[in-house]
Amino acid sequence: MSGNNMRDIKRRVRSVTSIEHITNAMKLVSAAKLRRAKATFENTHEYFHYVTECIEEIFNNTREIPTKYLLGDREIKTTCYVIITSNRGLAGSFNANVIKQAQAEINADWEKPYIIAVGSKGRDYFKRRDYEISGEYLSPPENISFVETRDISKPIIKLFNDGEIDEVMLIYTSFISSLEQRVKTVTLLPLDLEREPGIAPLSRPVEYEPSVEEVFNYLIPKYVEIMIYGAIVESATCEHAARRIAMENATDNATQMIDDLNLYYNRARQAAITSEITEIVSGADALK
């Protein structure tokens, strides 16, 4: 092997070493962000069920409740898809899995969909395919506060109340563990509630002030807000977990590549030294 090839190998080793340092640093950053995001997710996740329980309690304890938000009240023609992705790549198949699931749901829809994109990756994908984006929110998911979630949910509730959409579907990545994340599809509206078996409405119903309808209509927007916020927090946790795994794999691959290149370099150097020794010995024999 020539000296030029040996220099090329050394340049590749330096290049891959630089990449290894970068991916290792990104892995450490993602691990730190994952710890913070996971703590936020665990602290908030337990409160997400309270509003749902309140809605179910009203449904089971009241004879007459508003049916506007319940399944079966209207024919489902137009669906609004809330698609949560990230703003950055280098997270393995994190964004691709969400987009693939969203595309499959949209393909099965025979009406023109409403798309609410949280994160630039999903927004860019559907824009390139000439879908109309009804709303986009491009702040990093981990920085979106519960107050900012209202900016996402209020237009959705208005569209539903005005009859422009008949269904709201939330598509995001669900956190199973630090090593496993799955895409999840949740139907936010209309609510699919059933009375618990064996439980009839109370003979003396609970009184809600100012009225059952007012309380129910107050809880539904809160339910949508909480579910969207919870999905954003969970998606951010999954993003950092996916990026940590991706960067760890990239670092391991870079380390293996460096070892292979060093092995090639040492073999080439040994071959060059052997060739030089052979030339010296041949020259010495020729002088005898």
Describe this structure in words.
- The two termini are 30 Å apart.
- By secondary structure, the chain is α/β, with parallel strands linked by helices.
- It has two domains: 3-24 and 246-287, ATP synthase, gamma subunit, helix hairpin domain (Helix Hairpins); 27-242, Pyruvate Kinase, Chain: A, domain 1, CATH 3.40.1380.10.
- The longest helix has 76 residues, at 212-287.
- The chain contains six helices and five strands.
- 60% of the residues lie in helices and 13% in strands.
- Strands 3-2-1-4-5 form a five-stranded mixed beta sheet, with helices on both faces.
- Helix 1 (3-45) runs antiparallel to helix 6, helix 2 packs antiparallel against helix 6 and helix 5 (146-161) packs across helix 6 (212-287).
| Helix percentage range | 55-70%
Based on DSSP secondary structure assignment, what is the total number of beta strands?
5
Helices, by number, come to: 6
The CATH C-level class name of the largest domain: Alpha Beta
**Major sheet description:** 5 strands, mixed
Radius of gyration, in angstroms, nearest whole number: 29 Å
C-alpha geometry: elongated
Mean pLDDT: 84
Question: How are the strands of the largest sheet arranged?
Answer: 3-2-1-4-5
Write the CATH architecture name of the largest domain.
3-Layer(aba) Sandwich
Q: What pattern of helices and strands is seen along the backbone?
A: HHEHEHEHEEH
According to CATH, what is the topology of the largest domain?
Pyruvate Kinase, Chain: A, domain 1
* N-to-C span: 30 Å
